[in-house]
Amino acid sequence: MNRMFGNVRINFLAGIIGLIITFFVSFSSNLLSTSLFRAGAAFIIWFLLAFLLRYVLGSVLASPPDKGGTESLEVGQETKGAQLDVIAPNDDEVLKDILNYAQAEPNEDQNKPSQSAVESGFEPLNPPKIVRTKDAEELAQAVRHLSGK
Q1: Closest CA to 14 of 52, 38, 43
Q2: pTM recorded for the entire structure
Q3: pLDDT (mean) for 82-111
Q4: Could you tell me which residues come within 8 angstroms of residue 34 by beta carbon, excluding any fewer than 6 positions away?
Q5: What number of other Cβ atoms are within 10 A of residue 43's Cβ?
Q6: What whole-number distance in Å separates Cα of residue 67 and Cα of residue 63?
Q7: Residue 77 CB: number of other CB atoms within 10 A?
Q8: What is the pLDDT of residues 105-135, one digit of tens each?
């Protein structure tokens, strides 16, 4: 089965375009030999990229082959594993707890974790409080001293 699109002339055309662009861009700031070497390398790279592009286009544009009478058997095999049914668990109780917590007035009940939070092992983060041990003037003096002013 031929999956290539077009013919080799497309590869040569792409290679020559890459050669010309690379040569003129490189010639403005390099020696002639360096520019020719880079242009040759660009020709090879563009030539190979055209092969890859032709193969991909041939694969995408190719029509699927006729399957004949075995189509009904193969359809079941093709679709097997192609679809995934996912059902989310029912989280209505957790959602109600969240909504009630957001709408309720602050009181002691909110400081206690809900039953669903205890079941899931969730603990709220309680970071330590930052306490200032020095007054602001003393800190300003230290900053002035360190900055040299």
Answers
A1: 43
A2: 0.41
A3: 69
A4: 26
A5: 20
A6: 12
A7: 8
A8: 555 555 555 666 667 777 778 877 877 677 8
